[in-house]
């Protein structure tokens, strides 16, 4: 900040006794020091120094400014020390918000490593299924899914959007009619995510295939809930089929606990 720099030079001039001496200590020419003092006087709209060929003398206003300037510089030095300390070793409260499924599947393990690396940072983690107002709730970091609808926010993409897939347990599939096309889902118990569009147990599942028209199926089932953890547990235990982002089930698909339905 130029004004702070000029205040520092003003105090250095008083300490050194001349523009030349202050310039030597600061690595500046006497003319550059003089310009800085003139800029400070212009900003304050007051003459701070009487200048003669032999010496510099403080004006009455200059004496008052000099006393206040020392306080200002001391406070600035304290502030810079605090900032430097935080940059060297981050500390303080970090408020994070994300969906429950993200917190359980990803944030819980990352949190442990983060706190070991930054022991002076306190974490406040808020898990909900709805977006929250970052400013109103004093949230520092939000991890979100989908498209961002707040263009004023600073954004960093963590991963590309995951495809949504239908899964079921091997036991469920073995005891129910085969599923070879989307409309076969009408004869199955489809566990759905409650998103506010339907409140009667139904949900619209869309299927897209390259070069073909999209297919929409209005499915229904015995469970509709706005929590992916409950859906995940229910489908693993053979209650029905479920459509969610593939990252929710990756481990279960790899282990064989769940089977990908209608892969094509």
From TrEMBL:
Q: Which residues form the signal peptide?
A: none
Among the GO molecular function terms of this UniProt record, one is: DNA-binding transcription factor activity
Q: Which InterPro entries match?
A: LysR-type_TF_proteobact-type, LysR_HTH_N, LysR_subst-bd, WH-like_DNA-bd_sf, WH_DNA-bd_sf
SUPFAM superfamilies recorded: Periplasmic binding protein-like II (SSF53850), Winged helix' DNA-binding domain (SSF46785)
Please list every transmembrane segment annotated in the UniProt record, as residue ranges. Answer: none
Pfam families in UniProt: HTH_1, LysR_substrate
Q: Tell me the keywords, alphabetical order.
A: DNA-binding, Transcription, Transcription regulation
Which terms does the UniProt entry file under GO BP? DNA-templated transcription
The UniProt record lists the HTH lysR-type domain at 1-59
In the record, the note on similarity to other proteins reads: Belongs to the LysR transcriptional regulatory family.
The name on file for this protein is HTH lysR-type domain-containing protein
Q: Which organism is it from?
A: marine sediment metagenome
Which lineage is the organism of this entry classified under, starting from the top rank?
unclassified sequences, metagenomes, ecological metagenomes
